[in-house]
What does this fold into?
Amino acid sequence: MVQRIEEIYNTTNFRQKDALNALVLAQTLKEPGISRKEITSRFKLRPSSVSQACIELIDRGILQQKVSADSNQRGRPEVSLYAVTDHWIAACIFMESLDFRAAFIDITGRIRPVKLPLQRRTNADLQSRFENTLNSVISLQPRDSKFIGLGLSLPGFRNVEENTWITSTRLGEIHQVSSRTKDPDPDMKLNWIRSVDARTQALLLSNPEYRTGTTVLFHWGYGICISLAVNGKIINDGSSKFGELGHTIVNYQNGKSCRCGGRGCLETEAALWALLPSLQKRFRDLPENEREFSAFLANRFMEELPEIESAIEYINVGLVTISKLLSPDRILLYGPFTDHNPIYQRVKTLFSENRPKSEFSTINLSRIRHTPADEVIGATNSLFLQALRRDLRAGD
It folds into this structure.
């Protein structure tokens, strides 16, 4: 968030003094203890304007100041400025394979995981597990901070009219999760976002190079999907099935039924949920949780198994497909399979050997390491932007 605070008024008709408030806050976050004089000099601003901005932000509890205690200092004592980093707090609920997780986050991106009560995990009680998670987060929200809302980062897409989330097929026969629960704050702001889009948003925030051209984030894990960003903007409103690459048909003749109701989908050949039954015959302790599965792959020669070799070939079909359809500048792979370096190298080699050189010569294929923090940051980003635009408006 820090590196984008100065930009929150760029696309709107806010006044110059509103943007100055944002600038002052951004500088105190980047350089705790910075003085008004340093801000004034660095940006060639009027001292009175900077002082007025600081006074407003201090009065609102957004900034705090500390006066120098140096008794030998002559003249007016130096005043150091500090952002109140937990002035705004947001929360995020996301999924790790089949389990709900939650965390709080402040303006600096500092994340505090929420300890959730143990819940029995079955598909049949998905809605109740979601409600329990939601209510736990609401009950644990910090009382000394301004709680600005909840980011819901989930696999699937949103039904706007019914305010429900249509879950991805990883969750079996349960297809909807509703936010219309008995929560004590029905006016709480909710930001629904696809989990893969939340990760893309976090990447765009922290990597300026991804904000130019076309970027595809390719997830290969329990399921298979993509996110698309063009010139720093994610191309999906969360209300469509765009990006469900795992449910494109790659082998209709295989007779394998997909959880989506179709047959021969890419996920039936390469998704973790489809490979588990075969792999668990070889490894009885093989986990289905993506993070645990990634750790399990370490120091094992899984890439030599026929199931994995076949999956890599089908993943290459997916890569070639999106390359032809979208002509991206870069494809970023992430997930437990490509965390495993030998598998990643085979994917990269196969794509390089089989791509039409004239078409794909400029596509950069690489991988990223995913952490849950990416999802939390991406899912709550718009909540922080809304809060900043509202609370940093200068007084009349």
Summary: The chain has a mean pLDDT of 85. Residues 306-326 form the longest helix (21 residues).
